[in-house]
Amino acid sequence: MPLIESNSVVSIIVPVFNERRIIEITAQRIMAVFKNIDDDVELLFIDDNSPDGTAEEVIRVSKSIPEVRLIQHGKKEGIGAAHRAGYEAAVGKYILCIDADLSQTPEDLLKIKQKLDEGYDLVIGSRYMKDGKQLGKSPLRDIGSRGMNLLCRIFLGLKLTDGTHTFRGFKSNLYKKYSDRLSSKGHPDFQVEFSFWIQKGGNKILELPIHFKEREDSLGQSKIIIQKEAPRFLKLLVKLFIARFLKA
Question: CA-to-CA distance for 94 and 144, rounded, in angstroms?
């Protein structure tokens, strides 16, 4: 795999923390879907210094699936920080993002990649637009997620039904263009902040309806705690509301 930027590589980002049990099956499922595309693929697992041996498992799997790379973030600062570490390590022309537990499907991720091929700059898989679904999420988390997206539309003018979603793909040059404006490290504030600047910059954005299924208990628990993230999100909302009316 090349160590410099390449216009023939697609980078898939998978943040992980204590996910040792599912690394191999996740890598196999993603690569099974992407094996026949014209571009090369690199599959980056971004580890936040997991104590359960996740990093060692990624290295083991990479011996049989050479597209797999370990990016050791080294500290647990939030999923936004893990995403950023992945973006900085990626060498591809596109950056695609999916959860380790495959709550979203690799098949839908491939659809996102195909829309980038058609010329879109940012493509987000939406749980909340027509024909999208969200299954298995608790009522509190579901209401919280929908409420955050509603606030983004009202106060930030985001023309998105699911701007908080990590499941997305974008042209890698967008991260280089806006990285110095991104200060958030958590979720969903990092995704909202990045989406905001991409829209404000006049880039071409699309949402696709997708089905999201909350991870099964046997695969561990979600790392997102909405009560913890809400105060940081509201603080960011105020900051970006002001920026909305300033020149880019």
Answer: 30
- Say how far apart CA 240 and CA 246 lie, in whole Å: 10
Contact 156, 86 (CB under 8 A): no
- pTM of the predicted protein model: 0.92
Please give the pLDDT value at position 73.
87
Q: How many domains does the chain have?
A: 1
Question: Considering only CA atoms, which of 11, 7, 86, 82 is closest in space to residue 42?
Answer: 11
Assign residue 102 the CATH number of its domain.
Answer: 3.90.550.10
Concatenated DSSP letters of 16-84? ESS-GGGHHHHHHHHHHHHTTSSSEEEEEEEE---TTSHHHHHHHHHTTSTTEEEEE--S---HHHHHH
Q: Is residue 2 part of a domain?
A: no
